[in-house]
UniProtKB/TrEMBL annotation:
Organism expressing this protein natively: Cnephaeus nilssonii (Northern bat)
Domain Pre-mRNA-splicing factor Syf1-like N-terminal HAT-repeats: 20-144
PANTHER family assigned to the protein according to its UniProt record, in alphabetical order: PRE-MRNA SPLICING FACTOR, PRE-MRNA-SPLICING FACTOR SYF1
Transmembrane segments: none
Gene Ontology CC, one term: U2-type catalytic step 2 spliceosome
Pfam families reported for this sequence: HAT_Syf1_CNRKL1_N, HAT_Syf1_M
Annotated protein name in UniProt: Uncharacterized protein
Amino acid sequence: MVVMARLSLQERLDLVFDVEDLPYEEEMMRNQFFVKCWLHYIEFKQTPPTPEAQAQSARVLKLLPCSYKLCYCYLMVRRAQVKHRCVTDPTHEDVNNCHEWALVFMHKMPRLWLDYRQFLVDQGPITHNRRTFNPVLWALLITRTLVFGLCTCTSCVHTHCLRWPCGATKLSPESAEGYIEYLKSRDWLDEAAQCLATMVNDERFLSKAGTSNYQLWHKLCELISQNPDKVQSLNMDTITQGGLTRFTDQLGKLWCSLADHYMLNGHFEKARDVRPSEL
């Protein structure tokens, strides 16, 4: 039988057939490449979950390594088996190896990468997580869903969470607005302001949401003026003057943002001097 031929001697010894398994085994001999039959067989063996069921699932994947349904079910069961065990338990490493093996064949499937990411995050090794996720940028298309999904883990360090979406915006500049919203949600306002400044200075930038360059400039001024203690890398005076030069027909909001910035910083005399210039 082809299935048995692909198994090692130890794996063959681990397989135990009961009388109830015979109808399924006969069906497998007739339709060994029919995924639905294997799914029924695995579901039967996993009620309740046993080591024999795990060996049976591994047997199936040896025959059909590119079946997404079989692979997804197998990995889900393996993760459930170690869910309540200590992270130092050797079985966690076994499950990690199962994911690595599966992703060799299913590396274009974002769902498997995201499940593996969450499984690693629960274990806690940040360096191992980063090295594991690096191949994702090469294996998958850079989509906003995947990239930001990988960055929402709260256990990641600051620079690690910044690199993923930053790389995506270089390949897909129109997704920069989503990146800025992500930075705001993490309260990294200085990085958000720097990204906004890059956008408003790029005359070729086209907003996916249809936001005009003036609206982006106003968002930048408002972000800096309302958060003077968190945005330290940009000069509000220079940015406002640049906006006043470029948008001569929309001066009011920019002057108000500059005045608010001075007042929040306690420079009331400068804020007062802005009013005559505004008028």
